[in-house]
Amino acid sequence: MPVAIITGASKGLGRALAAALAGRGWDLVVDARSAGPLEEAARELRATGARVVALPGDVADGGHRAALVAAARELGGLDLLVNNASVLGAAPLVRLAEHSLDGLRAALEVNVVAPLGLVQEALPLLRVRAGAGAAILNISSDAAVEAYETWGGYGASKAALDQLSAVLAVEEPELRVWWVDPGDMRTDLYAAAVPADDDSGRPLPATVVPALLRLLDGPVAGGRYAAAELLDGVR
């Protein structure tokens, strides 16, 4: 069975993607910072028959990243690494003039440094499966390319992740490397970012999953994509 590591998988897009992969027969290594919600998600995933290793922890911790990759190795290897875990750096979001520098450092650590650290840990396993289509999927944001007021810190971290992904795609041409803007979603992250906003009309994360599955299913070249444009090819 193929094996995936998905970070930030206790809720939102990470949990929705994990459920879709488990339903397709994938085995999973999942993480989140909160043990309770992660174990709840893992129980649902195991109900599909998937083997699931749930490791609570912080992706900014190198030891935790090593444990995630070790768990994938125990499951038989690694076919897909999904860097989905993110932090805002300031919640609610603020203008750059008031943005905490410690908050920005935290966003860069979790949204940029940690994904690279996990890629570095995982590359030996991914390279083994390169001929079978092994892939890295980094979850980006439109804030990486658009200048939205108050989204400067978070957007800067996602812009850095985009550039890291682009270089990685050049340096590891045998792997498929994608970085994807999922678009607007109704998530806890967005609610924390803009608590005064009514997000009831925003789509649920599960609506984005078909776009991500299209990457896995089709001959889609590595690169940056918006989920909306991928979904245009699904509908």
TrEMBL record:
Domain of life (superkingdom): Bacteria
Signal peptide: none
GO molecular function: oxidoreductase activity
Keywords: Oxidoreductase
InterPro entries, sorted: NAD(P)-bd_dom_sf (IPR036291), Sc_DH/Rdtase_CS (IPR020904), SDR_fam (IPR002347)
Gene Ontology CC terms, in alphabetical order: membrane
Family affiliation: Belongs to the short-chain dehydrogenases/reductases (SDR) family.
Name the record gives this protein: SDR family NAD(P)-dependent oxidoreductase
